[in-house]
Amino acid sequence: MHDVFPASSHLHRKPASSAVPMRGIVDITSAARQHPDFARHERVLMVTEPSSGLDAIVAIHDTTLGPALGGCRIAAYESPGEALADVLRLSRAVTCKAAVAGLALGGGKAVVRGRPGFRPAEALFRAFGRALESLGGRYITGEDVGSTAREMDWIEAETRHVIGTTRLGGTPSSTTAAGVLAGMRAAVAHRLGTDRLAGATVTVQGLGGVGMVLCELLAAEGARLIVADIDPARCEEARRRLKARIVDPAEIHRIPADVFSPCALGGVLNDGTVAALRCAVVAGAANNQLRHPEIAETLRRSDILYAPDYVINAGGLIAAFLSLKGYRPGDAAVLARVREIGSTLTGIVRRAEAKDQSPAAVADLLAEERIAARHAARGATVERRTGT
Q1: Is 109 considered catalytic here?
Q2: Which of 16, 232, 320, 377 is deepest in the core (most CB within 10 A)?
Q3: 109, 243, 325, 355: which one is catalytic?
Q4: What is the pLDDT of residues 296-331, one digit of tens each?
Q5: Which CATH number fits domain 25-93+102-156: 3.40.640.10, 1.10.455.10, 3.40.50.10860, 3.30.450.40?
Q6: Sign of CA dihedral 252, 258, 263, 266
Q7: What pTM value is reported for the model?
């Protein structure tokens, strides 16, 4: 890993605007420390701009390995507390995701509160871009749930610290899906003795940008698809194009399958849903799938192999990191790095079995070890420089 933030031509490009940086940034780190999801975050910022309607929170979890990178999520949070909980959990997950993937990146996230009737507006995202520019590269944003390349283009008009723009190749959904597929293959190989998904039954919950692409990849492999989404049009598309069977979103976790693949929002694996699972493997693209950490142990004791979400959905982050170095999502070097997710998961699962622990616990430990190793290396460097 590198000791400096990754350099790239796009990071050093001057922002298109010369507007005065926005002043509506309040550091709420001290207050956030009281929240149960606070996990030694470095900075938590409230970002507002009344004239544009901007109401956002940026969380920078850890920059030991590099600058914090994480998407900008737009959601109709019911309260500021709900938004804070989400951004704290998501930013920590990105730290772990980057560390386990071996990337010189830290973890961050932004959430924008989209109230009823919210429509993405250029003025709002340009204001957000000015806020990011004032952070000097400590946090780099990108696409996430609710945002697209269009919003990233608006942000780019004000700051260099953004990925996922039209200029940089847009959404990394395809690479995220490819990484989930690699992880799913590895999990199935470990549990069922074959990495072939032909003939396997896979239940996919959520047919958004990543979920639908994953279904396309699975159909090409010859898997039998059972799908659910709150959007009937997406379900019909999957039925028509991919010959998927459609079930109720509230019931999909109960369907017998080889693999259950959560690809919607987080928290789907809770005490109730886990008790109803009828599968050998859980491997999906959704972030923060575990409602609470103890669920990982419940899955292990139920003889269900859980592929930690941040391990196998790291393809998008890998593509984002490599975009900082000039690569585009479909480049061979990017796809080769994404395919390594499978071997990473295999190593975690074997270590978990040897330690009689869940893969999620071992993945967390691996992330902590890599961050601690960076701290130790920096300490050794300081000692050499000072002669102590």
Answers
A1: yes
A2: 320
A3: 109
A4: 999 999 999 999 999 999 999 999 999 888 888 889
A5: 3.40.50.10860
A6: positive
A7: 0.88
